[in-house]
Inverse folding.
């Protein structure tokens, strides 16, 4: 089953301070997703937290991914920023996603994060998310389309068009609250 994952910087401090940091995290996310057998469907890297939408192909795949990715990125970050200690605020949080009813809304929730944070006015303006892949057709070996995404159309262009249409309506505030609550449990 797909899972929505969030990991925050310790005390909500920045865990990405340069393009090099974002790129390094994406590089290792791709590497460990392949090694740990996890399909990544959507993602956004904010300055102080990360959202991922993933489907594990084996029972412990997500925990292995997050453990390996977290350890590797913290080593990199501490070395390059001349610091020591923890970077992440404890263990990551995750919740299972009901595919038919909820999945595409979680895609949208994740990729609209930079807008809710006031960083951009359109999801296409934010470089560190999967929106460019899912909505605009940018090639990426990191993202694996979920079946529900593939059901949006018979061709890539149809899927991208229909995916962008999902973003034309505001995300329901009740649904946003439910997503946040699910991640806190």
């Amino acid at each position: 089953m797909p899972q929505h994952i969030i990991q925050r910087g310790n005390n909500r401090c920045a865990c990405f301070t340069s393009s090099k940091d974002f790129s390094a995290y994406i590089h290792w996310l791709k590497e460990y997703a392949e090694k740990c057998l996890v399909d990544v469907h959507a993602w956004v890297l904010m300055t102080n937290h990360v959202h991922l939408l993933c489907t594990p192909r084996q029972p412990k795949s997500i925990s292995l991914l997050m453990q390996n990715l977290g350890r590797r990125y913290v080593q990199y970050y501490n070395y390059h920023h001349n610091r020591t200690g923890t970077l992440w605020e404890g263990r990551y949080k995750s919740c299972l996603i009901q595919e038919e009813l909820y999945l595409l809304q979680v895609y949208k929730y994740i990729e609209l994060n930079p807008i809710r944070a006031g960083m951009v006015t359109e999801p296409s303006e934010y470089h560190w998310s999967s929106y460019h892949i899912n909505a605009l057709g940018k090639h990426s070996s990191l993202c694996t389309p979920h079946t529900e995404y593939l059901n949006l159309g018979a061709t890539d262009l149809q899927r991208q068009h229909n995916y962008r249409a999902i973003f034309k309506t505001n995300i329901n505030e009740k649904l946003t609250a439910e997503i946040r609550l699910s991640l806190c449990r």
About this structure: Residues 3-184 form a domain with the Alpha-Beta Plaits fold (CATH 3.30.70.1290). The longest helix spans residues 61-80. The radius of gyration is 16 Å.
